[in-house]
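Figure S4 source data
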Amino acid sequence: MEKGYLVIESFASEDEIEALRKRMSELLSQSDCSASSIFSTKNQKKTTDNYFFESAEKISFFFEEKAFGDNGELKQPKELSINKVGHALHELDPLYKEFTYSSKVSSLVSSLGYRRPVVMQAMYIFKQPGIGGEVVPHQDNSFVYTDPPSCTGLWMALEDSTTVNGCLWAIPGSHKNGLVRRFIRGENGVTFDRPSPSYDQKDFVSIEMKAGSLIAIHGDLIHQSFENLSAKSRHAYSLHVVESDGCKWAPDNWIQREKMPEPLYTP
C-alpha cells in the first residue's frame, strides 16, 4: 500500500449490505440504551468509563455527544442518536461473525501478508445526519498496538460516503513516518502518551466511497473524518486486524482481555 491505504470497490454485495444494516436495526430496537455511554474522540478521557472498557468483549452502544439536550434527555429517537456499536460485534452476533470470518475477508487479510490474524475490535459506525461527530486525525496503531506494530483497519461503507456526509480523509504516504503516539490504559483510565501533532488540512485528501466498497488502512496512516452536518447518514462497518504470530498484544492497550479472539485463519 504505497499511499497507506487501498480501496476495493464492490467488496460487499447489496444483499450483504442490506442484511448487515437490517440486523443492526434489530439490535438497536432490542437494546436497552439506559446502560450506554457517550463516545468522543475529542474528550476521550472524560467519556471513557467501565462501560467502554467492558465493551471490548460485548456488544455495546455509544451515543453521539450532541444527542442530548440540556435536560439530559435524547433530542431525537435513539436510532438517530447512536454514534457506534462495538466492540465484540464480530464475535457475539452470528451474522456479523459470519461476514467477518468469511472467505472474502480472510482472502483480503491474507493478501496483506498476515499469518495468524486476529480481529481485535469491530464497530458499526452511524455518522448520524446533523450530529455525526468529528473523528480527529489519528492512527489506528495508537489504539490497537502490538509489538511490533501490525494493525490494519478494514472500513466498509454501508452507505455512499461523500464529502457531504462525512467521508474519510487521509494524508497519503503518512504511514511511512511511523507511529506518532499511543493511547495507554493505566490505573487512572486512559490517556495519550504525548500530545497530538498539528496537521495541515491541505495535506489531506478525501476518500469518497460507494456503498459496498472497502478501504484497507495501514495502522500508521493519519486519517480523519469531519462532522456530518448533512441530512444523510453514513453507516460503515469497521474492523481492526492485528498479527498474532510473532507480534505481542500490548498489555497497556485499552482492550484488555482474558482470552484473545479466535484468529480468522491459522498457518
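Figure S5 source data
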Amino acid sequence: VAGLGNYGLRGTRHSVGMAVLDQLARQLAVAEGWRADRQCCADIALATARSLELLLLKPRRFMNLNGLSVASAAEIYNLRPEDIYLVHDDLDKALGKVAIKLGGSARGHNGVRSCISALHSNEMTRLRVGIGRP
C-alpha cells in the first residue's frame, strides 16, 4: 500500500495519501515500526491485517517521482502491479469523499502517472481521497 505525496510537504492536501498511511499504521499498531529504506527511497512499515502481509510505503520523493520508489519496492518485495494499492489525493472529489478505482489512466495525477510509467502498467488499485478544489 503506497501513500503518494510530497515527502517534504507533509500536512498539505496533496500529501493526503501519506496521512492515510500514517492513520492505517496506527490502526494496525505499527506506527512505531516505520523505517527508512534506502533501496526504495521510502519509509516502510510491515503489517498484518486479516492474515494478509502488508508493506506500507511512503516515498521519500516529490510526487512526480513517487513511482520510482513504488517500482523499487515492487522489485525488492516481488510484487506485481495488481498487488499494489495507491492512496492519493483527488481534486475532483469533494473533501473527505473516497472512491476505489481499479486500473485505468492517471486522470492527470502526477504521482499516479509516475507509478504507471515506472511499473509499465496501469493495473494498480487506487484509493482516491477527495481534497476538493481550492
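The two ends are 27 Å apart (CA to CA). The first helix runs from residue 16 to 27.
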